[in-house]
Write a structure and sequence with these properties.
Helix content is 49%, strand content 10%. The protein is globular, with a radius of gyration of 20 Å. By secondary structure, it is of the alpha/beta class. Helix 11 crosses helix 12. The strands form two sheets. Strands 1-8-5-4-2-3 form a six-stranded parallel beta sheet, with helices on both faces. It has a two-stranded antiparallel ribbon with strand order 6-7.
Amino acid sequence: MKSYEKGKLPQIIWGSKSADRVGTELKKADVQKCLLVSGSHVIKHPITQKIIHSLESIGITCDVFDRVLPEPTDSLCIEIAQEIKRNHYDCILGIGGGSPMDAAKAASLIAGIPEDIEDLHEYGKTGARMREQWNRPCMLVLLPTTSGTGAETTASAVISSEKHGMKFSFGNRNTAPDLCIIDPEFTLGMPAMPTAYGGVDALAHTVEILVGTGANAYTNTILLSCLKKIWTWLPIAVQEPENLEAREQLSWAAHNALANGGVPNGHAVAHAIGSLYHVVHGHACMMVLPTVIRHFAETAQEAIGQIAVRIGVPVTGDAQTDAERVANAILSFYKSLGMKPLRETLQEKRCLDDEQTFIEKMIPVVMDDFKSHQWLPPIHTGDYREKVGRVCSAIYEEK
């Protein structure tokens, strides 16, 4: 069997009404003063308000930073880190989707870096200044309010660089939280498109890891279950926003899709599309995923066959034929949820970039993402411009 390793994982509490345990868990950890990091709309959520009141009732001071927007910037994370150091918080509570949780993760680790930071990008996964021994000076607890990003368990944060105009992965092995509490009831009533965007992000995590270089017997057992759940329950959750069973199934799948190793290959390209063209992350991931399947047709034939079975696609045994069928099924799936391929999306945004312009813009941003090193066959070696260009061209030509 193929060997594998698992990174640092937090304590995990999953299940409906598990958010009620925040106060108990912080009290057990002897927390006195915490900072809640989120967006303004999440602060108003009844569950969030209940958490704040429960902390205050047991004597835990809870200050609020509610200015996190989608695609958190490096300057925002540094600002939050300065608040952490200035007020000596002993716990950071990140509540929200991927953006608030990534901001909480990044800021809490930045607060523990004993250097003056001029360019956070230099501390990213492709930078040279990060040190694995650096740790945050406080406890970190994360509560996702969406089912998709899996940011509550990963040891990195996706940050937008204002200076470089791109997204990058920031962090070290200590970026993972101490505790994540996953309450599916947080996602009840979420509108159709945010539900769809989150769900397809989780689908992309699942499929990319299955076909990627980190796939192994341990992860595959869990991920194939995640795939089946997302494929079955995401359309139901989109159509029935108050369906608790659908929310629970998606919550479990989204969490486990990234809690069990591997580096999603297509995310390097999706991050570039998101940062250059301001496409919602989950949508960008789905634009890329059919091309990912076709790219890995030969090297991941067995995994693609297993994916086909889980999503109801007949298997022929021919690698290219099966990959094409799975890619087309994924394309039809995300279209059925209201998303469009790249060119249609760019046209709606009134972007006039032709194919060559798109490729030239994409190449340096894809290359900067550390996930681009994980492709097989490699796209980060030799004539990388031609290799990355082919991938980008295939995405642009998708209909």
